[in-house]
UniProtKB/TrEMBL annotation:
The gene is AAP6_0. The keyword Endoplasmic reticulum does not apply. This is Amino acid permease 6. It comes from the Eukaryota. The lineage of its organism: Eukaryota, Viridiplantae, Streptophyta, Embryophyta, Tracheophyta. Keywords: Amino-acid transport, Cell membrane, Membrane, Symport, Transmembrane, Transmembrane helix, Transport.
Length: 486
């Protein structure tokens, strides 16, 4: 499983045969082309990886927790994320940070330091997370597409018009686009994709922040906020308050998930870290810059969003119509979300595609259905090679994720569940366990005890966040109507 993941990961590019003379000049100590990245490029990659659709739910999350607990939880997650990322950075090389043996993927790191069944558990956590993210992106993109149509309806007929629009047709449109894009060979190597996704992400996040600031500064702006968030007995019941707080923690956890790409940022040859100065030292500084910048941005979006909407903050502050005007700016922001997620879906699905296809090719190397490429001449586009396994498998995957999204089209609850499920194993558990193994920290020593306390505390937080999201999903299923009228 480890070898297959190493072959499938979207971030790796194997080097061709090299001459010994060129090895010192143009290649690193592992025979791969010299990495050219710096602190600036690594920080940019981290910021791009962290800031995404999770920012859309932060105003709602702060509204559930209030002025005190909301920012405190944001800061707590930022600190934990930064701390564990420094532990993970030291694991890039094994058995010690200064060793010559590099690890190119998260699973490779776990295999080098822990081994055994934990490697399979890591793979299960990673791939489950990737699948969940693609489902979540289908939900979020369709909601944004619906929001564009509803925004124009509200502008034309007034803010109190019904403007009911079903999410299902837009999920089908999104899935159709993904079916086409998934057939493009080496889609993940298109460098412009990351740039476009980053631009779109910053665009809609900045628009949301700007609209929040404008709303707060507006004349006659009065909303209800409190130190403890939504008020029991007025806004929600006591039980609902507890469940919502748990779910809000999951939403914040989702917003900070980037551990799965940290190793790849260190390992990748293009625009990432050079061998000197040591990658782990640069990555620690980059993590500090990236997480600090992201936390500042998140704090602004969450706090200003809560100040703008109060305890009535929508689950998604760009599609929940806390803002109605200027409608064209709302439309543009939601188009940015859709474009971002169309590309991001492909980025996160490529390792899943490659894992299955690589495994099939390894097991049945002589099967023509799996290995044969059928040449198809397309006018004005040249020759395109069709592989039947790629056509059937990738189409099936997109259809299945779209069907699951149709069954559970609930933005906040699904994001909270993803955050709860991925934060503990990938951001906390494995980095701490690998650090203990790498440093050979004695059992029951002071350092061992407080690391274990941190790990167990984060496990409890993840469990309650998952419980809140599951309860929210159950409630949403009971009350769900196929037309978006909120």
């Amino acid at each position: 499983m480890v070898a297959e993941f190493q072959k499938s990961t979207m971030y790796l590019e194997q080097s061709e045969g090299v001459e010994s003379g060129d090895l010192q000049k143009n290649f690193d100590d592992d025979g791969r082309e010299k990495r050219t990245g710096t602190l600036v490029t690594a920080s940019a990659h981290i910021i791009t990886a962290v800031i995404g659709s999770g920012v859309l739910s932060l105003a709602w999350a702060i509204a559930q927790l209030g002025w005190v607990a909301g920012p405190a939880v944001l800061l707590a997650f930022s600190f934990i994320t930064y701390f564990t990322s420094t532990l993970l950075a030291d694991c890039y090389r094994s058995p010690a940070p200064h060793s010559t043996n590099r690890n190119y993927t998260y699973m490779n790191v776990v295999s080098s330091h822990l081994g055994g069944v934990k490697v399979q558990l890591c793979g299960l956590a990673q791939y489950s997370n990737l699948i969940g993210i693609t489902i979540g992106y289908t939900i979020t993109a369709s909601i944004s597409m619906v929001a564009v149509k509803r925004s124009n309806c509200f502008h034309k007929h007034g803010h109190h018009a019904s403007c009911s629009v079903s999410n299902y047709p837009f999920m089908i449109i999104f899935a159709a686009i993904q079916i086409v894009l998934s057939q493009i060979p080496n889609f993940h190597k298109l460098s412009w994709l990351s740039i476009l996704a980053a631009l779109m992400s910053f665009a809609y996040s900045t628009i949301g922040l700007g609209l929040s600031v404008a709303t707060v500064a507006g004349v006659g702006h009065h909303v209800k906020t409190s130190l403890t968030g939504v008020t029991v007995g007025m806004d929600v019941s006591g039980t609902e308050k507890v469940w919502r707080c748990f779910q809000a923690i999951g939403d914040i956890a989702f917003a900070y998930a980037y551990s799965t790409v940290l190793i790849e940022i260190q390992a990748r040859k293009d625009d990432t870290l050079r061998s000197h100065p040591p990658e782990n030292k640069v990555m620690k500084k980059a993590s500090l810059v990236g997480v600090s910048t992201t936390t500042l941005f998140y704090m602004l979006c969450g706090v200003m969003g809560y100040a703008a909407f109060g305890n009535k903050a929508p689950g998604n502050f760009l599609t929940g119509f806390g803002f109605y005007e200027p409608f064209w700016l709302i439309d543009f922001a939601n188009v940015c979300i859709a474009i971002h997620l169309i590309g991001a879906y492909q980025v996160f699905s490529q390792p899943i595609y490659s894992f299955v296809e690589g495994g099939c090719q390894q097991r049945w190397p002589d099967n023509k259905f799996i290995t044969y490429e059928h040449a198809l001449s397309i006018p004005c586009c040249g020759v395109y090679n069709i592989n039947l396994l790629r056509l059937v498998w990738r189409t099936t995957y997109v259809v299945v994720t779209a069907l699951i999204a149709m069954i559970f089209p609930f933005f906040n609850d699904f994001l909270g569940l993803l955050g709860a499920a991925s934060f503990y194993p990938l951001t906390v558990y494995f980095p701490i366990e690998m650090h203990i193994a790498q440093k050979k920290i004695p059992k029951y020593s002071f350092t061992w005890i407080w690391l274990k306390i941190l790990s167990w505390t984060c496990l409890i937080v993840s469990l309650v966040a998952a419980a809140g999201s599951i309860q929210g999903l159950a409630q949403d299923i009971k009350t769900y109507k196929p037309f978006n009228t909120q």
